[in-house]
């Protein structure tokens, strides 16, 4: 996203009491964006480069109190609510720092020191490319689920306008105007996050959406949702709110695929189709033994409805379901394996599916 878009969303997220984590390659303007936010809102910007900090720098030093040990406030601690804390290089921090900062993210406090009400917190990180020195923070879903994840990709025209406003010589601005591809080498930001929906993430999303008007939701709704519940759930959510496609329940597809439902599925765009495929494969993976017993007794109905579904979807999309069933068969045992083995036998009456299974061996 453009810097201006990320700045707007970061402000909305922080006004809602949540925390944005801005991803971008070095030099794209993450820190400058935070400085602009602070200036525009009359706040002091406190930058914590936690890759260079020890736990004592972050949490304060211990001191003797009245019969017990207390921790002094660290020197960066804000004195009032008019502050933004930028936690920079968050994916390069040592595990001990990460553990220490969790309390700040969750409870807005460190030890017995509580942040003044209204202090905003944001974070910044470089993408998990091999060029960056970082620890395994990126793999910690509990930590990453605390943030709304946003990515910055510099826009040449936006940068040119900004550069002229801050006095960059015309020779530089004009050069980028002539050769916009040379503004930055890496235009793709791959966050490699496995964000998943949870009750907490939906609650956080709801808090932020309250502060978006209809026009802003149209523009940013998917980006916001994808940054906290993951792209699949976000896609389905936004489509549902727009009335684009009401994705049917997997059980309805497998047991009661009516002609009216088939007609509706045929009208799905590719986004809705992908959401449907994702929903069905997830459902098949998570079937319990009790549910499998019921489906096993109705396996003829299930196979018939899947073949009906085949006629409603693009071939590649439908075969995502078949490949998933074959994968489950290879990696499961017991009742689940028996069910999917029998299901594929039933589905093999279709020539395309039979060809696929024979080639698969």
UniProtKB/TrEMBL annotation:
Pfam family, one: AAA_5
Top-rank lineage group of the source organism: Bacteria
UniProt cross-references to CDD domains, sorted A to Z: AAA
Cited InterPro entries: AAA+_ATPase, ATPase_dyneun-rel_AAA, ClpA/B, P-loop_NTPase
A GO term for molecular function: ATP binding
AAA+ ATPase domain location: 16-153
Descriptive protein name: ATPase AAA
Native source species: Kosmotoga arenicorallina S304
